[in-house]
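[job 4471] stage=fold_predict status=RUNNING
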Amino acid sequence: MSTATTATETPLMKQYNAIKAKHPGALLLFRVGDFYETFGQDAVTASKVLDIVLTKRGAGSSSEIELAGFPHHSLDSYLPKLVRAGHRVAICDQLEDPKTVKGIVKRGVTELVTPGLSYNDNVLNTKQNNFLAAVFATKNIYGAAFLDISTGEFYATQGDERYVLKTIQSFAPAEIIFNRQSRTHFEALFSSEYNTFCLDEWVFGFDFGHEKLINQFKTASLKGFGIEGMGEAIIAAGAILHYLDETEHRDTSHITTISRLDQDRFVWLDKFTIRNLELVGAQQDGGTPLIEILDHTLTPMGGRLLRKWMILPLKEKTLIDERLNTVETILSDAGLHEQLKTSLAQIGDLERLISKVAVNRINPRELLQLMRALRCIEPIRQQLAQHAAPVLQKLGDQLDGCEYLANKISLEVRDDAPIASHQGGVIKPGVDSELDELQQIAFSGKDYLLQIQKREVTRTGINSLKISYNKVFGYYLEVSNANKDKVPSDWIRKQTLVNAERYITEELKTYEEKILHAEDKLVVIEQRIFNALVTMAAGYIAQIQQNARVVAQLDCLFSFAQAAKINRYVKPFVDESLTLDIKAGRHPVIERKLRTGESYVPNDIFLDSEKQQLLIITGPNMAGKSALLRQTALIVLMAQIGSYVPADAATLGIVDKVFTRVGAADNLSKGESTFMVEMTETASILNNLSDRSLILMDEIGRGTSTYDGVSIAWAIVEYLHNHKDFKAKTLFATHYHELNQLEEDLVRVRNFNVSVKEVGDKIIFMRKLKEGGSEHSFGIHVAQLAGMPNRVVLRANEILHFLEKDKHKNQAAPLKDLPPPIQQLSLFAPDPRFSEIQNILGTVDINTMSPVEALLKLNEVLSVMKKK
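[job 4471] inference complete, writing structure tokens
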């Protein structure tokens, strides 16, 4: 950043440079009067990101420096743009009232906003958490912590590098912090996808982190949180709390607990699987992830919880059944369904509202929304408490309407309160007598003056008496000379005019003092009452956070019920077996995207560890192999997050890991080809499978030569089938028909094909899975359907027939004997054949020719074209 030299530095710029030096990595918004200003390189950056004018301060002088700014009241509009662009923003405010200070106003950074730390509604996504992550690693163990400061959610976990990387991908943090010593390693892992920031090495110490957590939660140990003994996780979590201090986020009373993410509790979904199955995000622009189909939540915290459920499917049958049974109850109880639908829609973001209370950032309208949310919780609590289902009674018992707080807000805050608490008009009449008097004075001043005037006319008998105002005397009583003898002794004469005299009274001066300062005092009193309300609400943080958690659960289960009702889903039966039996399963996303009148073709899938462990599925491209693989995984995962599933029936043995190898793209930025990506993902599967794994493999080996591809695919099938410890359930889609041979050699391998119907030279995709292998790939037909030029399609068909003519002899015809392509006639270069064909066709009358004559003429034309 360019700065002025010391000799020419103004007091303001000297102050700016001193503050900027403390926050070199942040873009500094420097409050000057009614504007936030940026200087030097910060101004250049801000002008580009915010599209504001870049000017210069001290142009032409030795202290010349770039300048860009915006009005202070526009901060909420401009700040999100800077943060979304990945910038850390230090907000430097005036800490003194300029009216009371001579010289330079004291200033200081009141908040450092980073991509991972923000309360601003315009920065935050309503239905997504905004996590800050910290990562720390020893030789073999990685620790990670995740905090959403806007909700108070705090998580910690540890494991090997693969597990932590997968967890980070699932939580998609807005920012990741790590230690400076590991900067090169972590930036290689994260910097291309995430905003990162490194802290000094001393921050990442066990004793320091442990003490930070103990002090935050006011406990003697961390055993109650389940993370005692998780050294790396504790270090990462402690670094996050230190980062809050460093960024001036010291109000953290809403961060009341830390939860352990136990990898043994949830289904293992590696980063490839989360991406390939498009659970929470589409791979292609305009695509639809599964969460969009299932998300019918009515509250922001419900939407955020659903996202976490999607990436953390359960493995415990008891918990899965509890969710499924609750969804069943909501579907079968029309009264409960309607109550939830009505009440949930009015609650709003209870979780972030109470966090704003904790950090004293809540405004009057948000406090009213908090009150309305608490009022909506009470009828839900009552209905759940009276319900026959024990699981619903348990949830109802955890709700607290916080009736006293809700009533207090309702009684004291105006229904039409403004957004800002310092604007006045926040507190209702009757709450404070002094405030009522000031409001009467400030907003009914003329009426009050008229009352004084009438009273004094009655008292003195001076009918012409009037009350007026000027800047010299303020308010005064004016009496004509004819009535001077009627003036009371307690009036004080201030001015004599030609025809009249002006007087003041103690009452009038007292009132004048009140009316001149009423508005200022009014705001101060309202602010005091409002702050007292916020302080009272802060005493309910624990209860309201608990309400938010229960409401989020109810909302997710209500969402599952809605999805089941709309999409005709059924309740799956989940057990501890190793069998997967789906009757008439459908792809939940594709069926919702079909054109009106078009129906999805369902399919059965059966897998177990005794007779049918591995299905080899052949069939042409576009026939639906990939959709079949994905729908199987999605049905399993939907069941294990507690949702009904798109099928006629489903009995599902609990799956502990889901692996997918479907689709691949070159990762050229890391020097990896399609084949390299494919092999990396496949290696991850083969090295980490278990007896309860579900494996989906689509077109393995297509990134290399045919012989290599067949060989690799064959070896993988054999490995999965013959594994000495595990019999992982596998769907293996391929266009290598040679793999059908494996059914004869491997007892738990079965051949299936996605059927097509040939009609002449065309094919119709039936989308139905049938037993037996497919003999053809129909690739040329698919090329034709895709709009390939007809000349290319015909030539491909010619080559295919040539290569297959000796197939029954188990040998391919030599390519050197392949006939050359028929040359297309040039329309521009002279060709003697053109004249000959023109002569043949010139005598033809197509209106009188028979079909046989037409074929003979066509044969003549072809004979000429084949001439060299």
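[job 4471] summary: Residues 27 and 89 are 5 Å apart (CA to CA).
[job 4471] exit 0
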